[in-house]
Structure formats: C-alpha cells, structure tokens
Amino acid sequence: MTVAIEMGQTTAGAPATLDLEELLATRLLVQGNSGSGKSHLLRRLLEQSAPWVQQTIIDPEGDFVALADRFGHLLIDAQDHTEQGLQVAGERARIHRVSTVLNLEGLDAENQMRRAAAFLDGLFEVARDHWYPMLVVVDEAQLFAPAIAGEVTDEARKLSLGAMTNLMCRGRKRGLAGIIATQRLAKLAKNVAAEASNFLMGRTFLDIDMARAADLLGMERRQAETFRDLERGQFMALGPALSRRPLGLRIGPTETAPRNAIPRLMPMPEATPDAHAIILAAPPAENNRPRRRSAAPDLLGQLMAAKNIASEIRPEAEPSLTAEQLAKRREQLDHVLQAVTQQPNAAFQAIGVLYQEFVVRCRIEGLGAAVPDLGEFRRMLTRARAGLGSDVTEDDDGWQDVSARASLLPEDMQGVFMMIARAAKEGWPCPGDPAIARAYGSHSLRRARRLLTYIEEQGLIVCQIDGAGRRIVTLVELAWATAPGDPNAEEAGNALAAE
Description:
Elements: E1 4-10, E2 15-19, H1 20-26, E3 28-31, H2 38-49, E4 54-59, H3 66-71, E5 74-77, H4 83-96, E6 100-103, H5 109-124, E7 134-138, H6 154-170, E8 176-182, H7 190-193, E9 198-201, H8 207-216, E10 234-239, E11 243-251, H9 275-279, H10 296-317, H11 323-341, H12 351-364, H13 374-385, H14 397-406, H15 411-426, H16 433-440, H17 445-457, E12 461-465, E13 471-475, E14 480-481, H18 494-498
Parallel strand pairs: 3-8, 3-9, 4-6, 4-7, 5-6, 7-8
Antiparallel strand pairs: 1-2, 1-11, 9-10, 10-11, 12-13, 13-14
Helix pairs in contact: 4-5, 5-6, 11-12, 13-15, 16-17
InterPro entries: AAA+_ATPase, ATPase_Atu1862_pred, HerA-like, HerA_central, P-loop_NTPase
Protein name: AAA+ ATPase domain-containing protein
Pfam families: DUF87
C-alpha cells in the first residue's frame, strides 16, 4: 500500500508529497541551522503520518509533548524512570504498538544520552515477532551521535552512539525507520548520517555545512550558497521517498504547536522606583530557599540507600530459614524458572517480559516474599540458558575459577562462556553456533561466531578447527578442552541437550 504524505508545496506551487512506505525503507536526514524550521518539518511529518504508522520521538527539549493530547501518543518523562525501566518501556511500546514521546527535558546531556540509548535499545532488541513498521524521530541528533567527544563520559557517549548506529544502520530490517534532525552535519557522526537516503536541507550559513549539503543533494559547489537564501520552513529535498532530483519545497501548517514558543518582542515595563531595593535585597535564608528538583544521580543514591535499609530490615521481618528450607526454596525457584524458559520462543524474548512471567508464577507457587530482583533473575536466566543448574558450582574449586573468569565478560556473554566451560570440563563436543546463539538469546549465527571471537580476544579461550572442520575450544590456564564439535550442530552435545 502506497501512502503519500503531503508535506507542503513545491516552489512551483504543486503539492509536495512524501512516500511513507519508501521512507520506512530508506530513512531521512534533516539539516538546518537553529530557526530554519526543522522541528516544524518533523511536526508536520508526524501529524500527517500518525494514522498510518507507529511513531516514537526522542525529544530533548519537550517540543513534541502536544502530540500526546492531539494524537494519543504516550508521553514518557525520562526524569521519572531509570535506564532499565526505559529499556523495558521501549520493548513494551514496540510489542503493543503504542506511539510514544520520550521527553528528556530537564536532564543534563549525559543523562539524556543514557536514557535515550536505553529506550532505543528496547525498541531495537525486541523479538522478531514484533518487528512492526515504526518511525523513530530523533530531534537534535548531534546530541546523541556526536562526531567528537564532548564533556560527557566516554561510557555515555559509547552507549548513545551505539544505539543511534543500530537505529540507522541495522534498524531497517527490524522495521525501524530513523528520522534524524541536526543543526550541523559537521557535528553529527558520519556513520550515522551516511545511512540516510532521503535529505531535507534547510537554511545554513557555514561554508563547510553548505558544501556537505550540496554534495549530499548532488548539487554543484557554486550552488551551495543558495542554502543561505532559504527562508524559515523552506527546504531542498532529495531521495527516493521525496524526489529523484533536488526539489525546493515549503512545509505546510501544523495542527499542534510547540510548548516552547518563539520569543516575541514586547514593550518594556515602566521603571520601578524601588528596583534597586527589590533586586539587590538580601537573599532569603538557606532553609527557606526553594530547592531544585534532585538530579538523577541523587535519586539513584536515595534508591540504593533505601534498598540497603530494606536489606538490613528484611532478616528481622522474615524468620531465619534452615538449610533444608533454603534448599527447598531454591528447588522451587529453579522449577518456576524452568517452566518459564521452556515456553515457546522463551530464549528470544526480552528480559522484562520473562521476568514478569517469572514473578507471576512465583506468586502462584506461594513464593511472593522470595522472588529474586531483576538483577538476580538475569543471572539465573543466563545460567539456565547455558544449561547450568544452581548446584553446578557448589564445592568445586574449578567452577569457582570459571565464575571468576566469566565475571570479566559482559553479563549477557557470561552464560555462553560457562556453557562452553561445562562442555570442556565434561569432555562433551563443542556447542554449535545455534546453541551458542540460543544461549545468548539471539537467532543470529553470525553473532554467535562473533561472541566466540570476542571471548578469545579477551584471552579466556582458544578456538581451533580440526581436519574435519570441527571446532575445539580450550579454556586458557584451566587446561579444559571440549571434544571436537560441528559448528553447525543444532544441539550443544547430547549430554548437554539431555538436561
């Protein structure tokens, strides 16, 4: 089905349309200096396409919150949610096909990057069954995919840039159509900007930006100066969803308006005789001064403090359990976890979805007070996907060494390493790529091979291929080695599969 979105009029007075179906496959880059009309363009596009496709907007300035009232978008205030909560929210929004606005207003640059990255990761990592078409609009994209390091930490920049790269480079197959807007192309990471096939270039004045805009539109360098003459709301368009040749257009009106209106000139008030006394009066007492809203790090500290207090109180509120009772509880939790992981496609579902199912089943079994938190559940699930029972490491120095080495890896890779370690300890065939991918929670065999390469680069294993093309993995320092195994085998060896 072809849906033509009317964006406005061309310079010749004809309707300027955008092919929505083509846009979903080819992505869009919008560039223009502050005041050129980028946000107005995005608002027009979102309003016109709202009835046809799911949308999400990464909104650093709170400009698009009005869409929630007019078109029913779910407004998510990032200040009120943790990064983990936002990742789960992204997954659920994708699953239930709810359009959203992620309002990042009020956060500093680093927290904006972290929370936007978490939400985008939730959209990206959802299971294949929920890869519905979706427009993902990122305003002021240079904040989330900067070309050079700024004042934020390297970790925050890496998280945000990775999420933006996934959106623009790998999102198409998952149904995600990235629409990014930036004030300057020079500030935007090249690998993010390069993936767009449609361009809308607005007013700009710097020579380097004009030259890059002209190159993207296939215009001659001498024509680049025309970008200085564009008025607010005027753009040059090019791309399969817009026009095969550079086309000038003017964006039409919108139904909603930004919350932050453009400042207008207004007359000055009459001079106040006691202005000096009012402005330079002594400040109020410190305890009477209105306090600013606590920043996210302070909230996190309060939450951690509350959690520590709760952990100190819990032993008094809950009677101590005998070793036999603890063993029985552990067995019950393992039974519930096994029931969750044996559901169809459980290996590829999001952590948040599985945790909800786990909590519900625990309550049904009468284990409401003993439900592990999300972090502990993640560790339990990692071990279960790797085929490891809760008793594997007890009273075993070798397995304690394995756990110590696994802790050097990212949490989602630890289960894969431990699965290979167990196969090596028991002398079972090396797990095949399908088994490794399943333990990691992925369908991709290529990702499974990359995981092995990464773990080998960390100096934890050595991979070899024998003359028959079978893979052997040896654990460094432990002298454990798997039996030769077919990399394409569906199961992780008969013994491991039997469990």
